[in-house]
Design goal:
This protein is mostly helical. It contains 10 helices and no strands. It has 2 domains: about 1-135; about 135-270. Helix content is about 85%, strand content about 0%. The longest helix is centred in the last third of the chain and has 41 residues, at about 225-265.
């Protein structure tokens, strides 16, 4: 069985790999960087390294809008391929979002090589060299706490609660990954949480995409771009049932996960 010191080396290596992916303009570079930062935060918080956890979280948050825009631009391409907007409307939106993307690229560059990132990397390197005490019990306790958060269903909850729950699923998965790395498999719960995270992610992508389109519709109407505003109105109406369906699927998935967690807590021997 490995000790938690191995996790710090893994997290430091994952961060460096993600930074290299960003620098070579990998399509998944931004996503990989945020995942690496999120995992550092989960590990650090569980092991009592709260300063590192805060630094990783701050860096990840600074890239949230950039990641959101990246996903929205991909969805816009899909909308264009499906013919849900005219080529002129897609071009108009793409040009508007391109300006936002330029600012996002500058934020990404600062986050990748800025002072906060360098401080975080130095701190991770020091801990990785020195190793760490036996924190397996702390990680296991953090995993149980994170999993307990999933024991509640999202039935009747608002979007804000769904968002917080989605973050909780990610944390539970990251801690399960930590335990697996150390030789304590959590594969049963983690496999279910992966599917749950993907379902919640689809809902989140669609509803935030719809929000951006609504903002652009309002801006187009204000500018007097009647044709574009009308097309966006129709697209928003078409997306409404799609978002509702994705939300319903997320709630149903949370209900299933809640049932499993409650069964495991009532009978630890049951998967």
């Amino acid at each position: 069985m490995k000790q938690p010191g191995a996790l710090w080396k893994l997290r430091a290596r994952g961060l460096d790999d993600a930074r290299r992916a960003v620098k070579r303009a990998s399509p998944d570079g931004l996503h990989d960087l945020r995942v690496a930062l999120r995992r550092i935060g989960a590990t650090a918080f569980a092991l009592g390294r709260k300063r590192i956890a805060r630094r990783a979280k701050a860096l990840s948050r600074s890239l949230s809008r950039s990641r959101r825009l990246e996903v929205d631009r991909r969805l816009l391409e899909r909308v264009g391929r499906l013919g849900l907007l005219s080529p002129d409307a897609v071009t108009a939106l793409a040009a508007r979002w391109e300006k936002l993307a330029a600012r996002a690229a500058r934020r990404l560059a600062r986050a990748t090589d800025g002072k906060r990132m360098q401080r975080l990397r130095r701190r991770l390197a020091r801990i990785a060299r020195k190793g760490s005490g036996n924190g397996i019990r702390r990680l296991a306790a953090a995993r149980r706490k994170a999993e307990a958060h999933l024991a509640r269903s999202l039935e009747g909850k608002d979007d804000r609660t769904l968002h917080r729950y989605r973050l909780g699923v990610k944390k539970a998965r990251d801690l399960a990954d930590d335990l697996t790395t150390l030789g304590l498999p959590e594969s049963t719960g983690a496999a279910r949480e992966k599917a749950l995270q993907e379902t919640l992610g689809r809902w989140n992508d669609l509803q935030t995409f719809r929000k951006r389109l609504a903002e652009d519709r309002d801006e187009a109407a204000w500018r007097g771009a009647v044709s574009l505003a009308g097309e966006l109105d129709r697209l928003l109406a078409a997306l409404e049932p799609v978002v509702r369906k994705a939300r319903a699927a997320a709630v149903a998935a949370s209900r299933d996960r809640s049932r499993v967690v409650q069964m495991r807590r009532a009978s630890p021997s049951r998967a």
